[in-house]
Design goal:
GO molecular function, one term: heme binding
Structural class: alpha/beta
Shape: globular
CATH superfamily of the largest domain: Sulfite Reductase Hemoprotein, domain 1
CATH topology of the largest domain: Sulfite Reductase Hemoprotein, domain 1
Family: In the N-terminal section; belongs to the precorrin methyltransferase family.
Protein name: Cobalt-factor III methyltransferase
Strand order of the largest sheet: 3-2-4-1-5
Largest sheet: 5 strands, parallel
Low-confidence stretches: 315-322
Cofactor: [4Fe-4S] cluster
Number of strands: 24
Mean pLDDT: 88
Number of helices: 13
Keywords: 4Fe-4S, Cobalamin biosynthesis, Iron, Iron-sulfur, Metal-binding, Methyltransferase, S-adenosyl-L-methionine, Transferase
Distance between the termini: 37 Å
Helix content: 25-40%
Length: about 550
Amino acid sequence: MKGKLLVIGFGPGSFEHITQRAREAIQESDMIIGYKTYVELIQGLLTNQQIISTGMTEEVSRAQEAVKQAEAGKTVAVISSGDAGVYGMAGLVYEVLIEKGWKKETGVELEVIPGISAINSCASLLGAPVMHDACTISLSDHLTPWELIEKRIEAAAQADFVVAFYNPKSGRRTRQIVEAQRILLKYRSPDTPVGLVKSAYRDREEVVMTNLKDMLNHEIGMLTTVVVGNSSTFFYDDLMITPRGYQRKYTLNQTEQPLRPHQRLRKEAEPWALDQEEAVKQSASAIEAVQNTREETAASRALAEEALQAILGESTSAVVHQPIESIFEVAVSPGLANKKFTPVQMTTLAEVVGEKGTMEYTPDHQIKLQIPTAHPDMIIEKLQAASFLLSPVGDVFTIKACDFCDGEKSDAIPHTEELQKRLGGMDMPKELKLGINGCGMACYGAVQEDIGIVYRKGAFDLFLGAKTVGRNAHSGQIVAEGIAPDDIVEIVENIIHEYKEKGHPNERFHKFFKRVKNVYGFDYQDITPKIKVEPAPCGD
């Protein structure tokens, strides 16, 4: 049975601004997936739906889980504040589906349910600032290069758009709104009206009227939408108004208008409008010129391709794809047991990273590389030629092995390599680390990882569910001792596949083990330290 995806925009957050269709869709759903703050905002509308809530930067895992559950036959609601199609989850859900080869006719059904976007809800609190041409620009450069955002701000400022800035500032991103103000001041008066709206229609709503010059003197954060007026926007009685232009034709303080209805659309009543006849002539000339250019270009291209084909003796494609540069991330190490980098490897790292890339040594005995490139395959080839072990970065399975006393205690190495071969780099609900130690000393801390195996007296001990960070961090629970070497790989593999299949997005293994109570026949026991621990400020 096919499931269904309901991608819901629930507006600013107040129940009275949630559309009837959005309410119905929430009630229809078997499962609600969303950012945890958004789930809390609609808590009063939930009944017995299964809830999966995750933190910021987990949008992809939410979309993937939603698709997975819908393909399993469930009706899944993916929620966004505002409108799901405006910086929301709608596009990402489509992208995940497309990656899986989804087709509208044969795949799971998808419905996008619109909501009130921030530009609309904030405008209603400010007055009527978006009565004329407007645009939205997100200042978050986590996914969009800042150079491109700058161009968009510049274009909007030059064109006299009313601009609504989303995601203007965060704890780490503080310069973007400063740069946006600088660009706008090149084209607009310092007295241009600006409205700052925080948490529109929520409990901690704040509305501030200011101007372009002074806007940074007020608190601006991730929950703020910054609305910058155009050259005609004005303040009146604590309201921000952008005229539509009616004053050009109408007398707003009189009931008797100078132009009769049949006169208002005549050419002489709109001297500022585009001359339609001249525009048609110019358009026809432009089209003819473009057509001639295209024909000339096509002829030249055909001739060039014919010559190239004669040289190469094979057909060539007329389509040329411009390479797109992006940040390529990969983790490298000398090997699972080997912890020693060679001079050749270090030289190779310097070469492939270059001036623009970065290298970061991690606690997992790897070096994480971030390299701007349009050709990641060439980088992979160079790293492999230098005998690096390559691992993907993110929510994947990673082995953190000891050095087996520089190879002297090597009995566990073949099993380590087999686990890497079968599972290394596999996608997980959350990053999953398997610690492996080659003797009972466990000096590399295998018992402190999500899953730990320790080779001792010719067999393996198995530890599950360590909590690796926080004041209440603890070692894994020992669930089995003396596992035969021939069995350990299969046991670990089954545990990991069960976590991959049943774990929630962003759910760490120790939380998964606690929730399901039993993993591959191993029972959970609460070994959390019995002390009062305040929640970590980061939300751990």
